[in-house]
Amino acid sequence: MKSTLKAKILLGLAFVLFLFFFSNDFGLIDVEKTSIITAVAIDKEDQTFTVTAQIAVPEATDTNSENLKAQLSGKGSTVGAALKDLGDVSGWFPKLAFCNLIILGDSLTDTNVIEALDYFAKTLRVQDSALVALAENSAKELLSITTPLDNISAFALQKVMLKNQGFDRDVASTDIKTFCSGYYSRNGSAFMPLIKTVNSGDNSSDESSSDSSTKGGSSGSSSSADAKNKDSLFDARTTALFKDGYKVGELDPELTLTFNALTQNFSDTTLPVNDVLEQDGKTNNYLLTVISSTPKLILNVNDGLTLDISLKLYCKISDHASQSSKDALSQNTPLSTAVKKKAQDLMTERINALIEVEKQTECDFLKIKEKLYRYHNKQYSKYKDNFLSVLKTKVNVIVEGQK
Questions:
Q1: How would you write the chain as a 3-class SS string?
Q2: pLDDT of 123-138, one tens digit each?
């Protein structure tokens, strides 16, 4: 009797599963028929926001393995209203669960950029890990560019901004959570990569392709404008600095590299060291690879406000321009005293320049005010309003390598 009842229950469960499987695929959406938003571009004209969504359309077949893309735009007095308008004119509610990139147009730098980012940070419509970047010109036009790196520009931009292990740490990548945390912190300082378009081919023009999509319209990836800009690449090594939401300055690629050396894992980064004066009186150029790095930033208040910066780099020579056969790379060339001295002087100079930029822009990207509050709270009220103007620095860079 029990075995018969058990058999009936199992048969009933099998029937229910069979019904769900063939009626609605367990409620799942067929990925081959699904379009997802990969990136959002935000521009502003007067008091109107224009939000452009780049949509990846999976159209892979036996003869075509590439994904198509489309763009939809909406306008509104706020970012949320612009996204609603985008849905109204398209009949498609824009879901942002897979959106990993938010691009701000340069038109937003005249205002507080938090007006555009707060919606994404507080509504939780995008992941906290979604990258944030500033376009050199129009954010919408930046998304329209097709590059050799990927048919979809959002994916190409992510490759440039998020480099895997083994690449130079020369991009100050920022996600929505990090930027908003910096904005709402005591120092009110934040940063994001500034995306520039460069041309890799022989064409002299590197202008962005014209965007044929209008409000409620879409454009495919096979347009003539895409073909015209097939040689366009992205450069994210410049860093835009923000104080209280307003753009106040930039870090050039060299200072961005130095900033990363003081604030994150810097291993596998290459460091060019040129014009090294050798013992024979000749000058040579070297390319060093950082095997390991140890940065320390310690704030002292014993004798005024002093920031002690120490950076220890262990490097090896990856390439050089020496004409001497005894310096062949196959012999694992050791670091000479002249190379180490030149590298130390170079990094010391750049660190001092980085501190000067922080003082001039009043953007506390090194979080000195946070260190003051956390480790020297009794002195916080004394220095919180003028800590950058009275700050003194001591820089000590040590470069070591094979002997």
A1: CHHHHHHHHHHHHHHHHHHHHHHHHHHCCCHHHCCEEEEEEEEEECCEEEEEEEEEECCCCCCCCCCEEEEEEEEECCHHHHHHHHHHHHCCCCCCCCCCEEEECHHHHHCCCHHHHHHHHHHCCCCCCCEEEEECCCHHHHHHCCECCECCHHHHHHHHHCCCCCCCCCCCCCEHHHHHHHHCCCCCEEEEEEEEEEECCCCCCCCCCCCCCCECCCCCCCCHHHHHCCCEEEEEEEEEEEECCEEEEEECHHHHHHHHHHHCCCCCCEEEEEEEECCCCCEEEEEEEEEEEEEEEEEECCCCCEEEEEEEEEEEEEEECCCCHHHCHHHCCCCCHHHHHHHHHHHHHHHHHHHHHHHHHCCCCCCHHHHHHHHCHHHHHHHCCCHHHHCEEEEEEEEEECC
A2: 877 888 899 999 999 9
